[in-house]
Every structure is written in C-alpha cells, then in structure tokens.
Amino acid sequence: MAQAFLKPRDYSHPKPTLEITGDITLLDQIVRDPSIYPLVSQDTDPPADEFTLRPLLDGRNVFVLVKAGLEPAGFWLFHCTSDGVYEAHTNLLDKWRGEFASEAALKVIELMFTRTPCSVLTTRVPAFNRATSIFARHHGFSKMYTEREAFLKDGVKNDVEFLYLTMSDWFFKQAGGYETAGARLVGAVGSAVYNRYVGVGLRLLRARDVTKADWFFNTIAPLIGRVPIRVLGTRGDIACLSVDGQVVQVSDDLEVVICQ
C-alpha cells in the first residue's frame, strides 16, 4: 500500500464502488499519474511514460478499479505470490485519498476475502512512507518484519516494512453485515459471531468457491467453539450443508429447505 493517505475527512464525496478489471489502458494511465508513480516506483524502475502493468495481467493477479460515481479514483493491484496469498499495491489518485480511501480499503479487503481465493493479504511499505504504514495498520494489517535497505529512492536505500492481514483476523475484527444472512439459516440458535460465520460462508458459496467455503468453515469453527459446517455438495445455486448434524439445502437467495 505504498502511498500516503492521511488527510482531513471529507464527507461530501460519493461512496466508492469497486469492479474487477483488466483494462490495461486505464490502469497504465492511472499508475503513471504524477500523484502516484513517484510514490510507488524506485530508482531502478523505468520512467513513468514507459512503465506498463501488462505483464501482470496473467489471470492470477487481481486488479480492482475504484470509482467515485463514474470517475475512476484509482485501483488496487493484488499480486498473487503463492496460493491464497496476495500482495496489495495501492494506486489511488491524490484527489481521492483520505476518508474516501479508507472506505474503499475496507470494501476491497472484503472483496478479496469473499470473492477471490485470497486467505492472506500482504503489503510492503518503504520507511519514508509512514502515513501508509499507519493507514495499513488502521485497516487491520500487522507487521511481519523489516527488510533493510531494500527500496532505492532518490539515491537512498530505504528499509521496507512488510505487513499482513489474514482472513481470520478480518472475520473477527472487520467483517460486518453478515449476521442477518446467517440468522436466516440457523435462526435463534446462533450467537452473533456464529451467525456472522454462517453468513460469510454462504457468501463464499454464492461466489461458487466451495473449496474456500470448506476451508473457512473448518478454520473458524474451532475458534468459536462450534462444530464446523460441512459442504456436502452443490448444484447450480443450491448448496447442501450439514449444520450441527442437520442436513439443509440453501439457495443463493437464502431460501432454506430442511432435508433431515
């Protein structure tokens, strides 16, 4: 997340909207902007007008465009470094930093954990960019380690701080709005955190990611003292689940049919 974000709050801006994109012309135009490229590049990189992200459009990486109304506000690049692990690179235009950037960050973190194979987000921040380090921590990231003299900028070798955020941390500290969906499936038997657990799992199933839903159910359940929900199978928009020993079918619109 190599940019500076600390600005006064501005409540007059439109709400950020997100879309996964592969529009290389727009992405290159944004990253080459004078308010972005000097912050994300180092001395060994080419001049802005020669830089392109095209080699990173390989199907594994995720580009998320951020819009303010109809206006592009920037994008996040999530570079897949290994299975389930994505390194975040933030490219927001100067006009849209501050409160707007914070709202967009929360949304893009949620998108990555619920609509992609991502289970761990990482990011790296040069030591001179303290504002971005604070911004990342504000959105749940924790420090892993510091690599000494790893970022050459204006002839100076800067230390680089590496940070991370796991899906489990996101679930317990940030995920919200899923309790209602979970309650529709488990009803009064669920606590708020259990309903959230069910709701996030259902969101993963709606994204047709059965493998990740299975992983999520089995990872979180022991942490909240519950028996994991098991995915017995799927057919179209119908998922068959085992919930506390009871087999149920649930559709994308959360219509529930108890099987036994």
Walk me through this protein's architecture.
There is one protein chain. With 260 residues, the protein is α+β, with helices and mostly antiparallel strands. It folds into two domains: 16-170, Aminopeptidase, CATH 3.40.630.30; 176-258, no CATH class. It is built from eight helices and eleven strands. It has helices spanning 24-31, 37-40, 99-115, 130-138, 167-173, 179-186, 192-206, 210-220; strands at residues 16-20, 62-68, 71-82, 85-92, 120-126, 142-153, 156-166, 230-235, 238-243, 246-251, 256-258. The chain has a seven-stranded mixed beta sheet with strand order 1-2-3-4-5-7-6, sandwiched between helices. Strands 8-9-10-11 form a four-stranded antiparallel beta sheet, with helices on one face. A hairpin with a 2-residue loop joins strand 8 and strand 9 (238-243). Helix 7 runs antiparallel to helix 8. It is elongated, with a radius of gyration of 20 Å. The model has no long low-confidence stretch (mean pLDDT 90).
